[in-house]
Amino acid sequence: MPDLDLITQALARNLKRLRNERGYTLDALAARSGVSRGMIVQIEQGRTNPSVGTVVRIADALGVSIARLLDYDETSEVRIVTDDQAVQLWAGSSGGSGVLLNGIEAPGPLELWEWLIMPGEGHTSDPHPAGTVEIARVEQGELVLTLDGRDHVVPAGSTASYEAGWAHGYRNDGDVPVRLTLVVSVPLPPR
């Protein structure tokens, strides 16, 4: 994994640059994202390590992928992310993880994730912007996908696709780890 300070500084630099490119004041970005002005200031100054939910809300409000917000090397036409450069954004209490493998703007943010959810672990997500879709491919175990309060069981070897504009989450109620690959496509925000 890349150095946490490197990621924090990249987030600070990229957030400020993208906010300014879009002409958003701190207050405007706070209103669009639901993240407090104070938190945005702390992130832009590299003084905090925000939660996954906070980074997702800011990326959604800016209309960029999380990968673009965290990118610390934007110098190549082909972005190759090796395993040791992938960014872990979620850690479960029993060793699970959510790792952002890569992401692009196509034309809205498009992200590829790798998840490991250990038995008894789960992760909940706030609704993404309307029109956001996710595709989850379960490689091992049995994923319990909760969408708008309803559970859906996705066994190994299956792929689920769904609108992610609702509250949703991923859970492992079984006794073997769940491994899944997740693609998230977020539409561009209205201007």
TrEMBL record:
Residues 15-69 form the HTH cro/C1-type domain. InterPro entries: Cro/C1-type_HTH, Cupin_2, Lambda_DNA-bd_dom_sf, RmlC-like_jellyroll, RmlC_Cupin_sf, TransReg_Diox_bact_type. This is XRE family transcriptional regulator. It comes from Kitasatospora paranensis. The lineage of its organism: Bacteria, Bacillati, Actinomycetota, Actinomycetes, Kitasatosporales. SUPFAM superfamilies: lambda repressor-like DNA-binding domains, RmlC-like cupins. The keyword Transport does not apply. Keywords: DNA-binding.
